[in-house]
Amino acid sequence: MPTIHLLIDPPYQEKVAAERLVAAAQAALRDQGAADAALSVRITDDAALQRLNARYRGIHAVTDVLSFEDGSLDPETGSLYLGDVVIAYPRAAAQAARGDHPVAWELCLLVVHGVLHLLGHDHAEPGEKARMWAAQERILASLGCPLSPA
Q1: DSSP secondary-structure letter at 76?
Q2: CA–CA dist 24, 116 (Å, integer)
Q3: CATH architecture of 3-142
Q4: pLDDT tens, per residue, the chain with 150 residues
Q5: Minimal CA–CA distance to 22: which of 150, 143, 118?
Q6: Number of Cβ atoms within 10 Å of the Cβ of 94
Q7: 81, 73 Cβ separation under 8 angstroms
Q8: Domain locations in the chain as residue ranges
């Protein structure tokens, strides 16, 4: 069973169904054959994502999700620790409103997207993007979140 460490900043704790995010991460890991891995997911604000994006990617703008690969062993479980997924709740809420779907679905999409990045997926090239989007769509459908990644 994968180990998902979830941290939800206080302003968003009442707005986020923690068990749904854990289920999304677990579903992505199972789908990709990494069911014994561990990772962390943090739900935070736009400012935190902007700072991280500037520091680690040199991009001075907010983004919806960032993934930070690790690859060490989780000290609590001995499992492979894939890394961290950080999501901006306000950005997710705005994207959900534009897409006319629940914020919970958008958060599931972002968790799955971030986990797939931790597992080596990318979307820089058309073939890579097609594979990643197909995996996202399949995983989201299994969760009852029928979103097609944009």
Answers
A1: T
A2: 11
A3: 3-Layer(aba) Sandwich (3.40)
A4: 678 999 999 999 999 999 999 999 999 999 999 988 999 999 999 999 999 999 999 999 999 999 999 999 877 778 899 999 999 999 999 999 999 999 999 999 999 999 999 999 988 888 999 999 999 999 999 998 876 655
A5: 143
A6: 15
A7: yes
A8: 3-142
pTM value is: 0.93
Please spell the DSSP secondary structure of 14-42, one letter per residue: TT--HHHHHHHHHHHHHHTT-TT-EEEEE
**For residue 31, what are its two tokens?**
């789908």
Exposure pattern of 11-22 as b/e (b: 16+ CB <10 Å)? ebeeebeeebbb
- For 48-72, the DSSP string reads HHHHHHHHHH---S--SEEEEEEEE
The tokens describing 25, both together, are 């991460």
Distance, in Å, from the CA atom of 107 to the CA atom of 33, rounded to the nearest integer, reads 22
Place of tokens 């302003």: 11
